């Protein structure tokens, strides 16, 4: 169960504005990577229903969003586009999204980040702590994971109306069997990531098809 133990340790050191940050969409074939940051101070009250977003139902996540926003000191949301993912790679693009979310918070003293050790100049050394499976341990990170997940799910639902047939309204762009099947039947959209799994194979197939159709000179 996520708790405030790590946040309280930082508060006891005088670091009173602690941000928890998490991202969603790393393994998706389509859509942006989205990050959220939640700022907590010693006045925050724990929401015991907050968990890692992946083990909550969609309805539970939706219900928790307004409660989280009411309890934490600030919420920030950031994203990195498909073009940025293709240019930077997903690892660096996820950190770009996190930094954009953190900038929306205003001033903060320390950041708790979900994941393993970060080797990226986007994160200032000495002002953050990485926590493996942080969304199961830190309340601030778990709250951020819920905000990020709901935000991205809503975005993919809107994109599903623009690009029907891929099932984004329920698979959120992840490589589910129905999404892979739709890729083969309908082709690629501008929101598919160029270097990801099935997308990469389809792009390669398109390139080979074009090359095969060229007349020899």
What's the short version?
The protein has 217 residues and is of the alpha/beta class. 45% of the residues lie in helices and 14% in strands.
What does this entry look like structurally?
With 217 residues, the chain is of the alpha/beta class. It has 8 helices and 5 strands, in the order αββαβααββαααα. The chain has helices at 5-12, 58-71, 82-88, 90-103, 139-162, 168-171, 177-186, 197-212, and strands at 18-24, 33-40, 74-80, 110-114, 128-131. Strands 3-2-1-4-5 form a 5-stranded mixed beta sheet. It is globular, with a radius of gyration of 19 Å.
Write out key terms for the chains shown:
single chain; 5-stranded mixed beta sheet; 217 residues; globular; 8 helices; alpha/beta
What is the distance, rounded to the nearest whole angstrom, between the alpha carbons of the first and last residues? Answer: 67 Å
Beta-strand content bin: 5-15%
Q: Indicate the mean pLDDT.
A: 90
User: So how many helices?
Assistant: 8
Helix percentage range: 40-55%
Task: Describe the strand arrangement of the main beta sheet, using strand numbers.
Answer: 3-2-1-4-5
Unreliable segments of 5+ consecutive residues: 206-217
Radius of gyration: 19 Å
- State the shape: globular
List the helices and strands and how they pair.
Blueprint: H1 5-12, E1 18-24, E2 33-40, H2 58-71, E3 74-80, H3 82-88, H4 90-103, E4 110-114, E5 128-131, H5 139-162, H6 168-171, H7 177-186, H8 197-212
Parallel strand pairs: 1-4, 4-5
Antiparallel strand pairs: 1-2, 2-3
Helix pairs in contact: 2-5, 3-4
